[in-house]
Amino acid sequence: MIAVESLRKSLRTGSTNVEILKGIDFTIHKGEFAAIMGASGSGKSTLLGLLAGLDNPTSGNVHLNGTAISYLPEDKLAKLRGRTIGFVFQSYQLIPTLTAFENVLLPYELNDESGDRKAGLERARQLLVSVGLESRLDHYPVQLSGGEQQRVALARAFILRPPIVLADEPTGNLDTSNGKHVLELLLQLNHSEGTTLVLVTHDPALAAHATRVITLSDGLVVADQQQTAQL
Amino acid sequence: MPSLSYSTASRIAARELRASRGKFVFVVISVAIGVAALTGVRGFSSSFRAMLLLRARSIMAADLSARTTQQLTPQEQAGIDNLVATGGDETQITELLSMASSITSLDPLLVAVKAVDPAKYPFYGQVVLSPVMPVTQALTSTTVAVGDDLLLRLHLKVGDSIKLGNRAYRIVATVVDEPDRLSGSFAAGPRVLLSQAALADSGLLAEGSHAARRYLFRLSATKQGNASSDNAVATLKSELETLLPEAQIADYREASPALTKGLDGATGLLSLMSLVALVLGAVGVAMAMRAHLQQRLDSIAIMKSLGAGSGQIMKIYLLQTLLLGFGGGLLGVVLGIGVQLAFPLFLAKLLHITPDFRIDLHAFAIGLGAGMLTTLLFTLPPLLDIRGVRPILILRRAVEVSDDPFTTRLVRKLQGSAVQLGAIAIILVGLAFLAAAVSDSRQVGGFFAAGLVVVLLVLLTASWLTLSLLRVFLRKTRLHLPSVVRHGLSNLYRPGNPSAALLAALGLGVMQIVAVYIAQRAVVQEMQVSTSANLPNIFLIDIASDEVEGVRTLLMHQPGIRGNPEILPVVSSRLLSIDGVPASQLKLEHLPRRMLQSINLTWPPTADAPPPGDDIVEGKWWTAQQSADSATHPLVAIEREEAARLRVHPGQQMTFAAQDAQFTATVAAIYEPDSRHTFSRAGFVVPQPVLAGLPVVWYGGVHCDFSATALLQRSLYEHYPTVTVINVAATLETVRQVILQITYIIQFLAAFSIFAGIVILASSIAGTRYRRIREVVVLKTLGATRPRIAAIFSIEFAVLGLVAGLVGLVFANILARLILLHALHFEYHFQLWLNLGAWFITALLTVAAGWLASYRILGQKPLEVLREE
């Protein structure tokens, strides 16, 4: 469960203070697929960052499964994030020096406490197979196409079976067919893994797949609607 | 294509500079540190060296001296006048033995008279009198200054008068120190110092007197107020040698070989340090500019996609580079001035040197030029890379992977890099040119420039090879390695990560820093030996055979005596012939023929070995058996310079006469004496049996603490009134102090160069930090803690440090060995522990620098970076 209360964020650029989020409240329940929509500059990426604890809010708080995360110490937050949240970024954010397989395995290596390395290796392989990259395990990111890189990122996001997956314009850098493929995989994985999915997009077609759409405008929630997801 | 105007280009360049000030400040600082190190070290060392050269000349009180026993002929005098007319100066010193007495007692005493022209003498250094007064005031036509042993022996005090020749002179002061005490003659008897005018009045210079004359020369000072160059000294020396064939001509370098060697060592080292500062600065600039241009790839791609040509973009970045180079250079020069101003303050406190420091404009011009030139030179390859940047970069930051065979790729790469290779060649030529401008020692500069090319190539190859091997290792072991190690090693192959360049830069830096350290250590150690406390500074002349043991005992029990006194026997003789050629017909090299009439022979303390300190340079020393047989088959060993003057070599026959005895000895060996030993005062050594039965006088030498010399002199006079004591403690103390100062300065400047080098290398490492930011952020997003990220980076940096350290150390030892043995003529020894220590420190510092540079990005909030996407 994600609970957001009175979340504010302002940035100082030079002498001016820009208020990006002006007090936001909402709760996303377990298993929900929420799309956060809004025009460019409406504050949706900032909100996603705050949901994941990638930045501190100016005021207010974010609770992940009952834990207030916004003011946790850096390393504690990193650990919590690693175990709780899977990420999919618009620009993939793969580590260029690691192979596709190693990139998927990375969160496992960073966060797993079971010590069962074999299970991690198997899970990484399985996920890459499920995104159709079984022949690309040892390729480096630069050797993969954009669609392939995003599929590696998807597999990486799910490796630890995180209760929450946050996706920031996951198809934004891809062509229509690749975008569609990635979205299908994301929904499929979300479905099979039973995660809560929060997707940031400005694309109504993408948001149409969500069960709930939260619309931001000028730093405020202007609409919050449940809907029947398009399949 | 319409060309971009310079004003537009500079506007874009300036805008970019303003937009990311932080990153550019870093580049500017890198350039500035390099330039500051160069100007600071060079400026300071040139000031310091100028001062040292003046101090070295004070041991002779001149640039050159010519010693002769004859009055100059009018032609010779005219020749000398002619030589000095073009600039420079000359003064005459007359030295002779005479009798002096108190005007009340009339007890005569043999004294060593030295007459000078108070208006000119000394050209360098200072005559120290007690009470303190200038020479011009002390030495009038009716006054003299005397050694305090004269006062002691004649029971006089300052203010009394002595009779010298047919005149009485008032004693106005005692002579505490004469700068040229070491290069004057060591005559028996206390010193009487007076003016030429006073000597002329005394009537001592009557026809046939045995006065020796020393002509001191000073070359005209150079424009900057520095001492004249060694070349000018050498030229004048050879001119004087032609003009005065009978005279012994010596330059200031010969007055104190230990000091000269120290000075040469210091000069070479300071040149080396300047060069090191230059190259390290260049490395800093290169790494900073490389990182900077890598960062600008996106902007370049955008501009290209908007239709800008490579030439236009290069214009923008060329202007930017020049601006950064100029800014950095200027800041560096200002820092350099600060360093130059701070050094003297520091030195004045620590070493009590107050040299005449001035802002060395030449050093600053070189510094600024070097900053600009190296910035430009080292940014040439990345600037030329602009041509290869494709606009597609803005859409897809990917490197194309080719499946062509290696050779095809290599050939294509070489073809594509022809311009870059050309640029590298220009860089090397430019650096060699700068090295020549910076280096005062051409030899060091030569080694350096040639070595740099080879070393850079080898370092790059070694770096490339090591990285390739590591990569193979990584591929083979990949998933079996702990993930931190795997990740750390993989980082070395980060796309665009300049690992090979960084390795080469680090290796080069380590090489130079360690070479400076090894070289300065060797020079300092050897110089410290030459300032050892056992150098004899009190010489005893005319000890009778029956006094030897008594004098030895007295010396050993006297306070302030260091080491064992050396006492050597001397038998006076004459050289009659060499290989049957009579002395009167011998061809001599700058040796007055009269000197052949007074040749001092000695025998060594051990029958079958040279006297302490003497090194054989030609021939072989005699065995115990040859020594025992020497009464029938005499042998002789000759000091190198004497041998050169007499033109003799081992195997030749020399006939000597002592008293009524005559013997013909075979030259067995030529040796180099060691001025630290009293035996260096004798030029001819024969086995003891050769001199059996001949009258012997003994000479002694011992080291006495400066403060205890007066007491020693009194004590000796009390017990052995006929023994003359020559006290050179004050002069030797000057030499020792200067050498010590040289060693301090060398160490200090080496420490400064090493520190600056480390800072530059650290900043090169730090320059790669922008590449890491995104990685840190992704890792954090995926749940990595800071210690974990730090561990990954530590492994990357440790590998870099260890590889660069190893390669750098190998070359550091090669470079130090070359420079020490062939350029500076000092000894080189491989030091295992020093190298291991340096290796460890390199790895440690690399990790520390990487850490420091990454510390801030470790704390950065991920969203700040992700938002920039």
Structure in a nutshell:
The complex is a heterodimer of chains A (about 230) and B (about 850). By secondary structure, chain A is an alpha/beta fold.
Assign the CATH architecture of chain A: 3-Layer(aba) Sandwich
Q: What distance separates the N and C termini of chain A?
A: 24 Å
Number of domains of chain B: 3
**Radius of gyration of chain A (Å):** 17 Å
Q: pLDDT below 50 for ≥5 consecutive residues: which ranges of chain B?
A: 394-405
Largest sheet: spatial strand order of chain B: 2-3-8-5-7-6
Sum up the overall morphology of chain B in one term. elongated
Largest sheet properties of chain A: 6 strands, mixed
Tally of contiguous helical segments of chain B: 26
Q: Please describe the biggest sheet of chain B, giving its number of strands, its sense, and whether it closes into a barrel.
A: 6 strands, mixed, barrel
**What is the strand content of chain B?**
15-25%
CATH homologous group name of chain A: P-loop containing nucleotide triphosphate hydrolases
Structural class of chain B: alpha+beta
User: How many helices of chain A does DSSP assign?
Assistant: 7
**How far apart, in Å, are the first and last alpha carbons of chain B?**
32 Å
Task: Write down the CATH class of chain A.
Answer: Alpha Beta
Shape of chain A: globular
Largest interface: A-B, 39 and 36 residues
Give your account of this protein's structure:
The complex is a heterodimer of chains A (231) and B (869). Chain A has 231 residues and is α/β, with parallel strands linked by helices. Chain A has a single domain (2-226), classed as P-loop containing nucleotide triphosphate hydrolases (Rossmann fold, 3-Layer(aba) Sandwich), CATH 3.40.50.300. Chain A has helices spanning 44-51, 74-84, 100-111, 117-130, 146-158, 176-193, 204-207; strands spanning 2-13, 16-28, 33-38, 59-64, 67-68, 85-88, 164-168, 196-201, 212-217, 220-226. Chain A has a 6-stranded mixed β-sheet with strand order 6-7-8-3-9-10. In chain A, strands 2-1-4-5 form a 4-stranded antiparallel β-sheet. The radius of gyration of chain A is 17 Å and the shape is globular. The mean pLDDT of chain A is 86. With 869 residues, chain B is α+β, with helices and mostly antiparallel strands. Chain B folds into 3 domains: 6-53 and 261-529 and 737-867, no CATH class; 64-228 and 241-252, no CATH class; 538-727, no CATH class. A 6-stranded mixed beta barrel of chain B has the order 2-3-8-5-7-6. In chain B, strand 6 and strand 7 (167-177) form a beta hairpin. The radius of gyration of chain B is 35 Å and the shape is elongated. Chains A and B meet through helix 1, helix 2 and helix 3 of A and helix 16, helix 23, helix 24 and helix 26 of B.
